[in-house]
Amino acid sequence: MYIAGAMDKPKTSFHALTVAEIRRETRDAVSIRFDVPDALAPHFTFKAGQYLTLRAEIGGEDVRRNYSICAAPAEGALMVAVKAVAGGKFSTYANNVLQPGDRLEVMPASGRFTAPFGAERALSYAAFAAGSGITPILSILKTVLHSEPASRFKLFYANRQSGQIMFAEQLAALKNRYMDRLEIFHFLSMEEDDVALFNGRLDARKCAEIVGLLLDPADLDQVFICGPEGMMLGAEAALLAAGVPAETILLEFFLSAGPSTAQSESAAAVVQAAAGRRMGILLDGRKSTVVFDAALGNILDSVRAAGMPAPFACKGGVCATCRAKLVSGEVDMKVNYGLTADEVTQGYILTCQSAPRGDDVVISYDM
Ligand code: FES
C-alpha cells in the first residue's frame, strides 16, 4: 500500500487569496474558486490530486483544514470542494458564511496522491471514490482524459442518494465527451437500482464483486482510492487479493477514523506519563526548551502554547504539515498516515501525534 498525504517537506507558508466564486455543488457541498494574482501564481501551481490547506479565524480560533483541489492543472483555476460535516467548524463556515470577495489564508498545494501524468502514457486507470472523496479523483480523471489520449479510466463512485453526487453534471459531461475511454459506475446506499450490484456501499465485499465483474486486475496500471477509511481499506484489500500490485494503489486519507477505544486508553496513558517532560525544540534557527503539557495532549500544541509558531494543518496525523525531525531521544506516535516508512526510518515524526518518552527529546522543525 502507498499512502498519499505528505510531500518531501510540506510547504508551510500561507498567502491571503480572495474568493472569486462559490458554487453550490450539492445541498451540503460547495466549491470555492480563488483568485490568484500573477505575483502569487508561482506559489500555486499544483499536480492533479493535490490539496490546499485553508486557514480562517472562526469564533476567535485559528482553524485549518485540508481540501483537495477539484480542478485539473490544465484548467487554469484554483478550486477546492468543501462538504459540510456535522459539527465541522470550517466546513460549516465555508458552506454557510463564506462569500465571494472574502479572503482566506491558503497554503500552496501539497500531497502525493498523484502520478507523473503525460501524453506519452497509455495506461489503464481505475478509481474508487465515496462522497467528497471524488474531489481529488475528479482532478486526476480530467487530467488523464485531457492529457493522455491513449489512456482509459474506470470510476466507481459511491454515495447515499443521487442528490448527493458531487460534480454529477461534470461527470456526465465527461462521460459523453470521452465515451470510449471513460466508464463511470455509481453506487447508492439509500436508493434502489434494478441492478443489485449498484445498490449498497462500496465495502470490501462489493469491491471484491467489482474486481471480478467490472475490472480486470491484470489490465490495471494505476488505482486511486479516496473516501472514508473503511471503504478505502476494503477496496485496497479486494484489489490486493485479486493480485493487483501494492505499488500501483494510492490511497488518500482526509482524516483518520481515530484509534479504537483500547488504543485511546493506552495513548492517554502515554500522554499522562509524559507530563512535565522537558523537550529541546529547534524552530526557525532558535532553540528553546518546552515543557510537555499533558492537558494539550501532543508535542505540537505544547510547542505552540509556548509561543513558537510550529506549523500544522489537520492535527489528525494525515497531512504531515507538523512534521519534525527527532534529533535525540524517543517519542510515542499515536497514529501516522502522513509519513512514509522511509521518513520514519530517517527519524521524522508527526508532532501533532507525539509525546516524549524521556527528558532527552530534541526535535527540529528546521530539518
Ligand atoms: S498537522 Fe497534519 S499530521 Fe500533524
Show the helix and strand layout.
Elements: E1 2-4, E2 15-26, E3 29-35, E4 51-58, E5 61-68, E6 78-83, H1 89-96, E7 103-110, E8 124-130, H2 134-147, E9 152-159, H3 168-177, E10 182-188, H4 204-213, E11 222-226, H5 229-241, E12 249-252, H6 261-273, E13 278-283, E14 286-291, H7 299-305, E15 323-328, E16 331-333, H8 341-345, E17 348-350, E18 354-356, E19 362-364
Parallel strand pairs: 1-12, 8-9, 8-11, 9-10, 11-12, 13-19
Antiparallel strand pairs: 2-3, 2-7, 3-6, 4-5, 4-7, 13-14, 15-17, 15-19, 16-18
The protein binds FE2/S2 (inorganic) cluster (FES).
In short, what is this structure?
This protein is α/β, with parallel strands linked by helices. It is built from eight helices and 19 strands.
Structural category is alpha/beta
Annotation field: number of helices: 8
Whole-number average pLDDT? Answer: 92
Number of extended strands: 19
The end-to-end distance, rounded to whole angstroms, is 27 Å
Using the CA coordinates, give the radius of gyration: 21 Å
CATH architecture type of the largest domain: 3-Layer(aba) Sandwich
Order of helices and strands: EEEEEEHEEHEHEHEHEHEEHEEHEEE
Q: Write out the distinct hetero groups bound to the structure.
A: FE2/S2 (inorganic) cluster
Outline the low-pLDDT stretches. none
Could you tell me the strand content as a percent range?
25-35%
What is the CATH C-level name of the largest domain? Alpha Beta
Q: Provide the CATH topology of the largest domain.
A: Rossmann fold
What is the count of distinct domains? 3
Helix content: 10-25%
CATH superfamily name of the largest domain? Nucleotide-binding domain of ferredoxin-NADP reductase (FNR) module
Largest sheet: 6 strands, parallel
Shape: globular
Please state how the strands of the largest beta sheet are arranged side by side.
1-12-11-8-9-10
Keywords: 2Fe-2S, FAD, Flavoprotein, Iron, Iron-sulfur, Metal-binding, Oxidoreductase
GO biological process, one term: phenylacetate catabolic process
Cofactor: FAD
Protein name: Ring-1,2-phenylacetyl-CoA epoxidase subunit PaaE
